[in-house]
Amino acid sequence: MMKKFKDLVTANGVFSDGDWVESKDQDPNGDVRLIQLADIGVGTFIDKSNRFMTSKKAEELKCTYLEEGDILIARMPDPIGRACIFPELNTKCVTVVDICIVRPASDEIDSRWLMHLINSERFNNQILKFVTGTTRQRISRGNLAKLDVEVPPLEKQKRIAAILDKADSVRRKRQQAIKLADDFLRSIFLDMFGDPISNPKGWEVKKWNNVLKIVNGKSQKAVIADDGKYPIMGSGGEMGRATEYLTPENSVIIGRKGNINKPILVKEKFWNVDTAFGLVPHKELISHNYLYWFCVFFNFEKLNKTVTIPSLTKADLLEIQIPVPDLALINKFDTVVKKLESTKALKTTSLFESNIAFSSLSQKAFAGGL
Predict the structure, then answer these.
(1) Could you please report the per-residue DSSP string of 301-331?
(2) In the chain, where the domains are located
């Protein structure tokens, strides 16, 4: 049966935006938690934020309290329209205006099925047609309300939800295995070199200007090609293929504008776009692995001098101080990294396959194929 999204919620349910809570309304010692966009993942509650307000203020603003099992939909990126089930947090919670609360309160709707539906490619394609805004894109609750939903019988909803829950559990376990490998490398780095920012082991310190070269990015328009040999890299990862490269293999890329605090280690030659810097280590002093992990620990935000879009300058970067341990110790760390990478590569392949399997199941489920 085809229904409009708003019709999935009964008169006893909730289909509303969160509350307009300003900074002045918040209180770090409050007893009501304010759920943020950062808490909403695709099919999972991330539990990341730490904002509060008092019960008195929540009552004054007539806030809607969340209940375990509510579906929370992020009306802003990234991605727009992602949804999760709100868990039991053992504290009173409300949410912000850019999150839509869906509480069907219906004997005909399974909430986990509905969450999976909202996160499906089929539903997301509908959402994208109604996205508004240029710099701050979003979908309104009014437009969400108009979207079409094919509603199968309740028993079929539950069966679909169970199948997708199981497939999702598999891929999340594989994601966790990769994270554990990264956490292990982080601990190895700290054990061998100490915190690279405070330098408790007293290693000799040099400026970036002495240990690496910075390659400026360029527009990719002249070199972009579907069959290009080299990846086009931005601060968010690969963006296409290029016929030429700017930065050699085993280098680090960081954002020049926008996403400036997310370094990426690139093992192959690449073309970096004009909003990203390529960092090429002087191998006689430091390795690419050591440089990457230093960048992971370094807070590039402190070099940002702009008010709007975060930005870095080459001159400021070259003044960064970096501890330079004995090369023999750095080489030893590289050996550990190499051993772990072979294991991590297998886990990454396994995760890729499980993501494809989940996506395929989701597409079948909401096209009537399960």
Answers:
(1) GGG---SSS-B--HHHHTT-EEEE--HHHHH
(2) 2-150, 152-193+326-370, 204-324
